[in-house]
Amino acid sequence: MNLKVVLPPVIIVVLGLGALSSVQNTGFREHIETTLTESAQGALSAAGIEGADVRFAGRDADVTAPSDAEALTAAEVVGGVTGVRTAAAYGPDGLVSGEPGPAEAAEPAETEDETDDVTDAATDALADAIASPEASEATSGDGTSDDEATEDEATDGATDDAADDKDDDKDEPKREPTREEREQAQEDLVEIPNITFVTDSARLTKDGRRVVREAAEVLAEHPEVEVRVEGHTDSVGSDEHNQRLSERRAEQVVDELVDLGVERDRLTWKGFGESDPLVVPRTFEDLEKNRRVEFIVRN
Fold first, then answer.
1. Does the pTM of the predicted model rise above 0.85?
2. What angle do CA 204, 33, 44 make, to 5 degrees?
3. I need a labelling partner for 46 at 20 to 30 A (CA). Which of 72, 128, 201, 295 fits?
4. pLDDT tens-place string over residues 88-111
């Protein structure tokens, strides 16, 4: 059999089937996104929430609102829609990761009755002190007992010593890594496997968390280096969505490293979206290579 004659038609058929599958998957995904968008908007309207923008990538939603509180409320409503997998809240300053504290958190003012009770108690205590000669003798001229004065002096001394130690630590310059240490750290970080996430999400997979732990161990071996965590996506989806996704993934890796004991001031992050592909995307494997997180030694 002449392979030169047989192989070209086979290759054309395989590539054609791959392209057809890609088109079908894209159309199905767009249908899901449209359906979920309509359902989410209906849920927001029913909840009386206006001004919130909802965009879907697959079954994951990005909810943007004029304030952090509105974004959190809207994301909670969207997250309850059937079929929605995740709903991330975005306020004026970006991703909202926590809930706003209640305005009622301040301590309530004392009532008039409570104030009167405190005043009466203080008056009685002062009268007892004046009437007691032992109390007058045990009290120094400035109203402080000898024991209290001694304790205050000891406390002041300890505070001064702690402040001096803190100033010494602050004045001590941080050691810069040598060129060899930087190169070795970068080489070790490059050897780390790719960090994986749930599709169209900043949520780490089980394997992704394992790789982040490996990265934390490498950084512990090189305590002097500072690193920028860079997030990259493939070219599937809009530029805006991919840019935001890459930022969320890079930030998530930084947060995970900090939880594992890496000092936050050693870490920065940046998202590049689909703007810096590792390879020209021609196959699904190429797309997978372009979805990546890189560690770049900065100092």
1. no
2. 95
3. 201
4. 888 887 777 654 333 333 333 333
Q: Taking the domains of the chain in order of start, what are their residue ranges? A: 3-95, 179-297
Instruction: Compute the CA torsion angle 285, 291, 292, 298 (nearest 10 deg).
Output: 130
Provide CB contacts within 8 A for 147, sequence distance 6+.
Answer: none
The amino acid at residue 152 is D
* CA–CA dist 283, 188 (Å, integer): 29
Superfamily (CATH) of domain 179-297? OmpA-like domain (3.30.1330.60)
Question: For residue 294, what are the β-bridge partners?
Answer: 230
CB atoms < 10 A from the CB of 263, how many? 11
Q: What are the structure tokens assigned to 191, written together? A: 């050897």
Q: Which of 295, 239, 231, 242 is nearest to 267 (CA)?
A: 295
User: What is the C-alpha to C-alpha distance for residues 230 and 184, in angstroms, rounded to an integer?
Assistant: 19
Say which residues have a Cβ less than 8 Å from residue 123's Cβ, sequence separation at least 6: none
CA–CA dist 264, 15 (Å, integer): 47
12 band by pLDDT with thresholds 50, 70 and 90: low
pLDDT digits (tens, 9 = 90+) for 24-38: 444 556 777 888 899
Q: Residue 174 to residues 73, 181, 299: CA-CA distances in angstroms?
A: 44, 15, 12
Using CA atoms, how far apart are residues 44 and 23, in angstroms rounded to an integer?
31
E-strand ranges in the chain read 53-57, 60-64, 86-91, 94-95, 227-232, 267-271, 292-297
